[in-house]
Amino acid sequence: MAVITLYTVLIAVVAMSLLSLSFKKLRSTKVKLPPGPYGLPLVGYLPFLGRNIHQTFMELANIYGPIYKLSIGQKLFVLISCPTLAKEVVRDHDITFANRNPTIAALAFSFGGKDIAFTPYGPEWRMLRRIFVHEMQSNANLDAFYALRRNQVKKSIKDVYGKNGTTIDVGMLAYSTVINMITSMFWGGTLEGDIGANINAQFRDAVSELLIIWGKPNISDFFPFLASFDIQGIQGDMKRASRWIENIFDFVIDQRTKNNTKISNKDFLDFLLEFKDHETGKSLSRPQIKAFLADIVIGGTGTTSTSFEWTMAELMLHPEVMKKTQEELTEVVGDANVVEEYHFHKLPYLQAVVKETLRLHPSAPLLLPRCPSQSCTLGGYTIPKGAKVFLNAWAMHRDSQLWENPYEFRPERFVGDSNKLDFSGNKFHYIPFGSGRRMCAGLHLGERMLMYTLATFLHMFHWKVPDGEKPDTGEKFGVVLEKSTPLIVIPTPRLNNLKLYH
Ligand code: HEM
Description:
The chain has 502 residues and is mainly alpha-helical. The protein is 50% helix and 8% strand.
């Protein structure tokens, strides 16, 4: 006990000295920092953040304005919640802000920040991003992998049909469908039979565990000098979970390369192993291949599946919108057919439902923080090099000066040409996939998976909540913004031709 107290005092003394040094340094350089709340000595604003920090950040914006700062431990956070300043970050100073400040957990999983999400801006990142966005996820490739996605959705339809009339957890349905689509696109038919099922199940569990660990606040991120102690064990847990996932990646890559396994459908692994950069003539190294796969798993699973769950929750709360969405599906797809991706462009109302859901419930409400590579000025204030800069999409999506009745779920606001808002991030008050150079690198795949799963499940089934229950829209902040209570619903088949469910 005495030893623990001694350590605590020692750590506090060192932290105080470091803090006072950094404040002295800031004062001596006479910079004009944005306004912001005071916190407690040492920990700063940490004790006041609350569980849903995106909501706290919006309340603070109402007090301090569209740009403010706060300190947490040794870190300076800058919060931005107006489109004009957001534009300054992602357009006017885009290169300065095209860097990340990864957490310790993120570094542990991304091969030390060697992936797209965390590689610093520069030629290496530009090369990774070009391959990932323009080549790996080209329309032709995404079309080629469609059969793999389709097979997995068919399996989920069969599962849901088997639960006809009983309750199911929508979040779990969405997560398993999305991760099955992703693993299938990764290594397709390489892993057949029991071994395949076993590896895929292990993979699914490892990814869920990793997302949970990643979502835990880590004291070492706020006090970097404590990092080597790994007080909460988060770094160790993350390394273990990542190693587990990496072993699965290695196993599958070895299977494919050593046995030269022939598969019927082309998948991401084929693409990555065969890839030769037409500019440099170079192939991808094994760590690069694994980093690409990691980005898809981490970037694509939680975001897409929670967006599915939020959409279903809003539809359950708005039966008139549900009715209109299903009528559109009936008209476009027809009662005797299943949904195909080529139907999407004829489903403007469903597209509007998805856009409206992502306005109210963006998976990453504060996007991924950016970190200026040099000090610069925003809105007349100095933003020091190394600060963590958050664009508060959640607050901008709910700002009554930017949206009419912002708290109402009204897909109609996205219908028609007069208000053409899309996911490109060019209108800075609507940025569910971010904006600028570092906007979501998986937008095309994410949009396809989300639209396809939603359209299919809405077309194939009627959904109702158990008697006496009402879905809510309570939120839980984490790696992605989840529903605080799971959405439980009862499906019944909607189409007469029951063969379509097998
Ligand atoms: C509904 C689905 C999705 C949503 C709402 C979403 C949202 C986002 C957001 C808000 C960012 C931060 C952008 C910024 O800082 O400006 C981001 C980054 C990223 N996303 Fe997504 N995402 C989705 C699906 C996906 C998928 C399917 C993948 C992988 C195929 C993916 C991979 C990435 C990567 C790699 C980054 C980092 C980009 C960089 O730093 O250059 N995301 N995503």
